[in-house]
Amino acid sequence: MIDVEQLRKEFPILSTEVNGHALIYFDNAATNQKPKVVTDALQEYYDGYNSNVHRGAHTLADKATKAFEETRTLLQEFINAGKSEEVILTKGTTEGINLVAQTYGRMVLNEGDIILVSTMEHHSNIVPWQLIAKEKGASVIPIPISEEGEIIFEEYEKLLSDKVKIVAVNHASNALGTINPVEEIIKKAHEVNAKVLIDGAQSAGHLPVDVQAMDCDFFVTSAHKMFGPTGMGFLYGKEELLLAMPPFLGGGEMIKEVSFGGTTFNELPYKFEAGTPNIADTIAFGTAIKFINKWGKENMAAHENALLEYATEKLKKEVPTAKIYGEAQNKVSVLSFVIENIHNYDIGMMLDARGIAVRTGHHCTQPLMARYELEGTVRASFAAYNTFEEVDKFIEGLVRIVKMFG
Ligand code: PMP
Question: What is the pTM of this model?
Fold first, then answer.
């Protein structure tokens, strides 16, 4: 088990106050907090070796390029990709999915083809597919989920056919916490020759990820849910697919030679990294990965799971009018619920008045909310720096709110 008090010292924001109360930050599925080493890495780059990468023949450019490329290697190791060229740096999960939809999707989709996504997807794993499907005369079909919030596997199998070209599902759901059986999903999709994109926004920082063992074709995630900066992430793609795909954005970095007679494109991964990249945040992302490696992803997840179990039991016992959404067997530490006769927004506001940050609303999963006929939920999502005492205060706050509403 990790030493939570020691871990908390790494995060300056955790000793601040909000609305006159010590901050209790339970909105980690939206974005988690940053340790000082990560913000230091940003400052050190700008103050110490700010320079463009890959093209400078001077000391600073060389230092920046080395630090930038070190992140790619750290990411490769983090997900066990076979080659660092298979790691494309992006602005995050959303950009990664759009990249695949606009390049791979554009290349393979034809009239009548199907893209399968699950009912519990984030909008960013629905809308990019709808955009390309519309252009190509293809359709986006949802895989049904159960009352507990799990993909109904038999329904998924029934939907598979040779018309299905792409299956796109999340590894873990941001709104319910469900961990999806991605290996089995991928195996079945490959039987009909469909390719699979795994949205790892909620998994990469919490679950073991081995893209080769999983055999996914694409894996995308965001740095800001793993102690790294916002607007930063990466796409993993199998080399043979990335080589076959056309470029996404055009510009500097992504070319080999440009002439008005025709342009040739750079090698992987640069073919998909047009323009001056987000150098500082890439370097700081590497620092965040080292931070996770130092504390141990498994150790942190064990504590998060203990918090989830404790909070779930306590909520059921002390707030009997609460109904939990997402009671899958395997979950990341997301607790989504509604309380009878109290609007989720009011609950969020009243908790905030006591310094407790949770998320309320549809969590960018409107089709999922429609599945449960909900407008939204209250979502508490835990990180390794959260404590059992914070959970106690959160439940106390909910009990008080229920009493107030009589
Ligand atoms: N997918 C899931 C499951 C998410 O939780 C999120 C972020 N809430 C995203 C995609 C989008 O990530 P980003 O906004 O960083 O691109």
Answer: 0.98
